[in-house]
Design goal:
With about 160 residues, this protein is of the alpha+beta class. It contains one helix and seven strands.
């Protein structure tokens, strides 16, 4: 009986089944040809939002600086009589009373509010450690807080500052 080379045996018993397995894997490409590798096709739901043009949508480049409309802690201008750049800076203890500090980041102007105070187009309803609850003139409630990195346990005065 003729002796078979061990390399030939490895190729027959390992390599050939491996290649057959690879050849049998399903492909994501349709029979019609290749598609863009990042294209995701969605079925037409019939709601008028999706169309065949959705697959080939393209958008022009942004000219100038992109501006984020979300700025944590900043109060909407609808609450500050149209003035922008007002932000909630935290709580302070002034004259033995807890107050919220609001500051205009451009002008440096500051205002201290106690619960119940009205200022511009808002009313301060309550203070927590790192957040305030306010309402606008239509009684719509809004909550504003400091970044999560400085959040403390609610109910304590551990983050209360005392202005000089």
């Amino acid at each position: 009986m003729a002796k078979v080379n061990p390399l030939v045996l490895k190729v027959l018993f390992i390599g050939v089944p491996f290649l057959i397995g690879i050849a049998m894997l399903p492909t994501d490409q349709p029979a019609g040809g290749s598609q863009h590798p990042y294209r995701v096709s969605m079925p037409n739901s019939g709601n008028g939002v999706y169309s065949s043009d959705s697959d080939i949508a393209s958008f022009g480049s942004i000219d100038g600086k992109a501006v984020s409309s979300f700025r944590p802690g900043y109060l909407p201008s609808s609450l500050t009589s149209g003035e922008e750049d007002w932000t909630y800076r935290g709580n302070v203890r002034q004259g033995g009373k807890r107050k919220a500090l609001l500051q205009n980041t451009v002008t440096g102007e500051s205002v201290y509010l106690e619960p119940g105070d009205r200022w511009k187009d808002l009313r301060l309803l309550s203070l927590k450690d790192n957040s305030i609850l306010i309402s606008d003139m239509s009684a719509m409630l809004k909550s504003f807080g400091l970044s999560s990195g400085s959040a403390g346990n609610s109910g304590s005065d551990s983050n209360m500052a005392t202005p000089q």
